[in-house]
Design goal:
Belongs to the peptidase A1 family. By secondary structure, the protein is an alpha+beta fold. The chain contains 8 helices and 29 strands.
Length: 512
């Protein structure tokens, strides 16, 4: 019996060894700072003009169950969060991790529906920076003042840090209330997006950690790279952020084109092995960014329609409601076999991103990655597994959200202006989600022809101003002689008219 127990224990350890080794592979030779993340599930309110007032379940060949669904009033979403202690005495807040912004902000006043916030008046260690910060969004805003205070991190971290963050006294439609609530947001994008850049050290939270814990954790000096692993499942077991550079031999890199968001260039999108066949500029109109604060993959309307068309061609029973995020697809029962049959009926979706050397790297998403599991309480489908389509339409450019990131270990290297992708070590990691390449890109002008070009006003001002002065000088040199000649001729003409010459014109007297 003892021998059998030993063998069973060894078997378990051998089973756990590969994912553990894969997770540790992101660690450099010296220790790095790793913080666990929690996945919070909630229902986001339906957007105006796009009500989600019912769930329609579809069926196909006995694999999927066709059931009239129960009503919900929003779309199922998720956020990957850190549990932080802020202030003295410590107040616990839940902060969403967001690569689509650069500010650390926490709710600082009672807001309708929000049952927790940071009480700045109760912290003896808080120092106000006397700077007003306001950030508007498409569907909300927050406004407050910049401050610094001590922040305690989860896990075995060598002491708290003093971080700069905004205390939002007013907000609307930004923080998440109720189930799956979060009261703060930790921005991890480039400093260009930050509204709190001061001597207090606002901006990217990863750099704040590197400045104060860099020597202890061997993370180097800012801007530091960091790794993100976002796992599925109800709690996101295995999710983490790690401050420090990855050390993976299988890491393939896409280039960051613009240092604000993590903007990439999409060279192609494939459904199965077939390209969408569109002008690649449409994939990047007006930008293509990686954004952990957004749940779905969001694509421009025409691109989304083409993806839905090609995926739907293999599933003719599915209607537009499913592909527009207004319906759920459920397996016939809750068994793993039925769920596997459901997922196997869908093709992979591949995004080809441009690399620093103008090749492409292919990120192949399995159906288990872009079909997002949804738990419906009291659903007529019983204990069946339900899914929603995780690729949606938007007018804000291509946004590769958590659905895209969750299939891979992702390194954000701001100093190198690149993003690395490797296989994930999540417990439910999809073996069919793959990182492939690099591959040559055959096109006239290369893959950069796919990029959307915008004017960088801040960077180009110093170049445009001397050019504008020079052009104005040249124009003045050309126009002034013409103006002088015109003035001389007009003056000469008036002089001749004053001498009594009529120039042959008839003068008609009009009575008063």
């Amino acid at each position: 019996a003892t021998a059998v127990a030993v063998l069973n224990t060894m078997g378990i350890l051998l089973t756990l060894l590969p994912p553990v080794c894969a997770a540790l592979a992101c660690l450099p030779a010296t220790a790095a700072l790793q913080l666990p993340l929690t996945r919070l599930n909630f229902v986001a309110p339906a957007k105006s003009g796009l009500p989600v007032d019912s769930v329609q379940l579809f069926g196909q060949r006995g694999v999927f169950q066709l059931v009239n669904g129960s009503a919900i009033h929003g779309r199922p979403e998720a956020a990957y969060c850190l549990r932080l202690g802020v202030g003295t005495p410590r107040q616990i807040i839940t902060a969403k991790l967001d690569t689509g912004s650069s500010d650390f902000v926490t709710a600082g006043a009672k807001t309708p529906g929000l049952d927790r916030w940071f009480d700045a008046k109760s912290s003896s260690s808080l120092v106000w920076q006397h700077q007003l910060v306001r950030t508007p969004y498409t569907t909300g805003f927050w406004e407050g003042h910049l401050a610094t205070d001590v922040v305690s991190l989860p896990g075995p971290v060598p002491g708290p840090v003093r971080a700069a963050f905004s205390v939002a006294e007013r907000s609307s439609g930004y923080f998440q209330a109720g189930a799956g609530a979060w009261q703060a947001s930790v921005g991890l994008a480039f400093e260009r997006l930050s509204n709190a850049r001061t001597a207090a050290g606002g901006g990217n939270f990863a750099d704040t950690l590197a400045r104060q814990l860099g020597d202890a954790m061997s993370t180097g000096s800012p801007p530091v790279p960091f790794c993100l692993q976002l796992c599925g499942g109800d709690a996101g077991l295995g999710s983490f952020i790690r401050i420090g550079q990855a050390n993976r031999t299988d890491m393939l890199y896409a280039s960051v084109r613009w240092d604000w968001y993590y903007e990439v260039v999409i060279a192609d999108i494939k459904v199965g092995r077939s390209s969408l066949g569109m002008d690649c500029k449409e994939y990047n109109m007006d930008k293509a960014i990686l954004h952990s604060g957004v749940g779905d993959i969001r694509l421009p309307a025409r691109v989304h329609a083409r993806v839905a068309q090609q995926v739907g061609a293999q599933q003719p029973e599915l209607g537009n409601r499913f592909f527009n995020g207004l319906g759920l697809l459920c397996s016939s029962d809750g068994s793993l076999e039925a769920t596997k049959r459901l997922l196997d009926a869908f093709p992979s979706v591949t995004f080809s991103l441009v690399t620093p050397d103008n090749q492409t790297v292919d990120l192949e998403l399995s159906p288990a990655q872009y079909l997002r599991p949804v738990v419906l309480g009291g659903s007529p489908a019983g204990n069946g597994s339900c899914f929603r389509f995780g690729i949606q339409s938007t007018s804000d450019g291509a946004i590769l959200g958590a659905t895209f990131l969750s299939g891979f270990l992702v390194e954000f290297d701001r100093a190198g202006r690149r993003i690395g992708f490797a296989s994930s070590s999540c417990p439910e990691a999809n073996s069919s989600s793959r990182v492939l390449g690099p591959r040559p890109y055959v096109a006239i002008g290369g893959p950069q022809d796919c990029a959307f070009f915008r004017a960088d006003v801040a960077a180009s001002t110093s170049v445009l101003r001397p050019a504008a002065v020079a052009m104005a000088t040249v124009c003045a040199m050309c126009i002034l002689p013409v103006c002088a000649l015109f003035v001389w001729r007009q003056t000469h003409r008036r002089c001749r008219d004053s001498d009594g010459e009529n120039d042959g014109e008839t003068v008609q007297l009009v009575p008063a």
